[in-house]
């Protein structure tokens, strides 16, 4: 792992598990995206007074199957990714502890305890959150959006209406990057003012 780096080497060595987990999350979103079509068909039959008890049972079972399928697929994919993240955190903390055990007292007297604790506690946890929650949320949001767009196209919704509803969503990443840079510069200014 040392040639590739700790994080990259870990992700590369576990890519099959990440791939299966991401595919499970994608499958759960495709199933969830079919929900509006089923509800729309149910509502149309309700408005036309053609709804029968057997149809209600069929729609209810369809919705139940979508809910169970989504929870099983998404939950399994999320569990797999979270487990990989926790294992990375454990391995990294173990390596840090073994490295700290090799260091002399002179090293610890020169370094601040807060700085070392920050590396061990906060930084490793932040990386774990990024490779677990970050991957799950990014996959979920991306493929839910894509599957909804595909189903809107298949439903016959005009392309102009789809573009009007999707284009503002594409601006969100740029706004986030812009706001994060603004917050970072504001924090740097505060640090300069507060810390001499």
Detailed description of the structure:
The protein is an all-alpha fold and 196 residues long. Helix 2 packs antiparallel against helix 4 and helix 2 packs across helix 6.
Q: Helix and strand succession?
A: HHHHHHHH
What is the overall silhouette? elongated
Topology, number of strands? 0
Distance between the termini: 40 Å
Tell me the helix content. over 70%
Sheet of most strands = none
Number of helices: 8
How much of the residues is beta strand, in percent?
under 5%
Write the layout of secondary structure elements.
Elements lengths: L5 H8 L1 H19 L1 H13 L5 H50 L2 H6 L2 H42 L4 H12 L1 H23 L2
Give a short overview.
This protein is about 90% helix and about 0% strand. The chain has about 200 residues and is mainly alpha-helical.
Features:
mainly alpha, 8 helices, 196 residues
